[in-house]
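$ ./design --mode recover --in tokens.txt
reading tokens...
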């Protein structure tokens, strides 16, 4: 890891303590990504607030996890892919869907694949999506409000993916079973 600390309640700035305690109460532990972001209480509050608001969106819990897992694979974030695989598994998302996302493949479910397509396109194309992609999204039954909620989900993952990638946040023990590495990135680094 680079220069930031994985904070605990003993080392975190006082202004971050309440938010860290709230994360622990909500999830059952403080994932390393939150512990690192705790260095800045404003960043931690923004990050947790976005997560809370996204959780209250019209998207289902399953769709929310799928968005976060897809975004994490597109941003080649090993930490977040492992974490969202754990959270996806806890929601009983099928192994086929999880494996398709982790390997950047199509999802067999039409509606979820429309979500897969739009999230990947948003990230790959800096927010620009084709008419065909947006039409597929709406044809699958998603609404304009849900499209905006997807963008919130992508935004949350942009924060955590960038922090994790830049600072090489280590996996929490509970995430280690689901370790992931982007094969395309490994091949680029070898060249």
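writing sequence...
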């Amino acid at each position: 890891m680079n220069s930031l600390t994985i904070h605990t309640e003993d080392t975190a700035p006082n202004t971050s303590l309440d938010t860290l305690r709230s994360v622990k109460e909500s999830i059952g532990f403080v994932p390393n990504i939150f512990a690192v972001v705790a260095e800045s209480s404003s960043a931690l509050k923004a990050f947790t607030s976005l997560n809370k608001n996204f959780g209250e969106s019209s998207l289902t819990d399953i769709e929310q996890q799928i968005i976060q897992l897809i975004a994490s694979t597109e941003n080649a974030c090993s930490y977040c892919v492992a974490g969202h695989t754990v959270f996806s598994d806890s929601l009983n998302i099928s192994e086929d869907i999880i494996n398709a996302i982790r390997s950047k493949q199509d999802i067999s479910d039409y509606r979820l694949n429309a979500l897969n397509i739009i999230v990947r396109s948003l990230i790959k194309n800096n927010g620009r999506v084709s008419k065909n992609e947006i039409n597929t999204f709406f044809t699958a039954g998603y609404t304009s409000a849900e499209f905006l909620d997807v963008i919130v989900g992508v935004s949350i993952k942009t924060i955590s993916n960038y922090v994790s990638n830049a600072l090489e946040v280590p996996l929490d023990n509970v995430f280690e079973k689901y370790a992931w590495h982007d094969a395309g990135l490994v091949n680029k680094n070898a060249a």
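exit 0
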